[in-house]
Request: fold
Amino acid sequence: MRKVVLQMMTTLNGRLDDPMAWLYGVSDEQYRAIDKLYASYDTVLVGRTTYEEMAAYWPGAISEGTETNRTMARRMRDCRKLVFSRSGGHALTAWNNTEQVVAADDGELASFISGLKAQPGGDIHLSGGASFAQSVIALGLVDEFHFFVYPAFSPGMAWFDRLPGKLDLQLLGTEKFENGVIALHYVPHRLAEKARPDSFTDMLT
Reply:
């Protein structure tokens, strides 16, 4: 069965929204680690607002920046992008391989994602926004968590603000980057395996 993987950049206090308020850059070393993770995905789940932010940036990044950034931009272009909405009342900015999914309530959301996990294919990246990600986490549908934690505190919506109860995670690996960012890899305790990798890098190879 395919895995749903939450992978996000965040602050020490777990902020996910408005990254321009706290994200001071992504080093090429960090981009390479993110790109290795993206190599395992073929589908991205995203809320409408975050999708519009992605669609405004990534198409132009194919011809800009470092080679690693351009590689990431091509991966984003080619991934199947499922944009979730409660009503479907807003038209989406056109982008390659994009579909809108209308899920009026959590029951419909759980049914759709559970069916998606049962289909053949690569892993599924759960992207933002924070409210959408929290809904999927609360439904118990996330199999892995990858956080790139910036050494900063910033007021805003945290990924765990609206979770309905306790969520126990097991740490599988860490890695430190030259810009001070720490990568943390977790799985829920219900999915934890006895065998653990020696480093975060081992999880990417």
Summary: The mean pLDDT is 89.
